[in-house]
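User: Design a sequence. Structure:
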């Protein structure tokens, strides 16, 4: 790692610190020193020193012998979100869409092989489930994941190489079937997630394009199947495509998608 760090101009200590921070996930938000050492390959003495330094800046907290990410990160959340230009452009449209349809509207982008939700407009008519900005979900079980990769199936193929987990009975875990779904999405211009991520929830998504015609984000609407069954969701397709065109035009895209 040291030679590679020097070759690439990386600071070895910072690289190790980031590696430690990346150990923490929603599933494993609290770890012991031994676990951190095993996950990172960094010996315990070095990991301990790094964790102690990160604690000084409130980026790591320690309770009962376990480490977790510190509250110092919270002050960066708003700064990061505000720096995402597409979020500033799209948020007013999301709020308008949510108010018009009385349904929750979301904005998501692709980060590596996952979908990251960066904005949400909620309505009391369709409040459900647990959600937070920055939440990540797999490509293969979300409507926005489908629209974000419908023109780049190689990204989906790589995601499947990393494993596909079944979240519901409807989750698509077969790579071939998912690639066929992506081709359908590419041709029709929208995607649906019919209880593929969460039981009892349907989603509809459309892609957003930049001036080069590349898909840079996706917007979706989601709600409980009791209120928004499949046929009801399909009724919203024309309006969703209209919003996608308006937003994409705002970002410099012109003509058909």
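Assistant: Done.
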């Amino acid at each position: 790692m040291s030679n590679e760090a020097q070759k690439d101009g990386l600071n070895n200590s910072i690289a190790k610190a980031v590696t430690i921070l990346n150990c923490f996930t929603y599933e494993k938000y609290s770890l012991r020193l031994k676990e951190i050492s095993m996950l990172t390959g960094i010996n315990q003495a070095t990991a301990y020193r790094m964790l102690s330094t990160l604690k000084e800046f409130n980026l790591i907290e320690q309770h009962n012998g376990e480490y977790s990410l510190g509250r110092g990160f919270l002050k960066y959340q708003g700064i990061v979100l505000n720096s995402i230009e597409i979020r500033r452009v799209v948020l007013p449209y999301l709020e308008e869409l949510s108010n018009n349809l009385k349904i929750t509207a979301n904005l998501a982008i692709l980060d590596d092989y996952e979908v990251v939700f960066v904005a949400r407009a909620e309505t009391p008519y369709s409040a459900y489930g647990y959600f937070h900005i920055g939440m990540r979900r797999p490509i293969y079980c979300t409507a926005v994941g489908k629209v974000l990769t419908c023109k780049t199936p190689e990204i989906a193929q790589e995601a499947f190489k990393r494993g596909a987990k079944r979240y519901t009975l409807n989750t698509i875990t077969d790579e071939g079937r998912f690639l066929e779904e992506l081709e359908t999405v590419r041709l029709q211009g929208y995607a649906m997630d019919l209880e593929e991520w969460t039981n009892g929830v349907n989603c509809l998504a459309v892609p957003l394009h930049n001036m080069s015609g590349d898909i840079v984000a996706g917007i979706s609407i989601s709600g409980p199947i009791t209120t928004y069954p499949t046929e009801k969701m399909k009724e919203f397709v024309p309006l969703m495509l209209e919003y996608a065109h308006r937003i994409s035009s705002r970002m410099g895209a012109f003509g058909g998608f």
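The longest strand covers residues 215-224. The CA atoms of residues 37 and 46 lie 9 Å apart.
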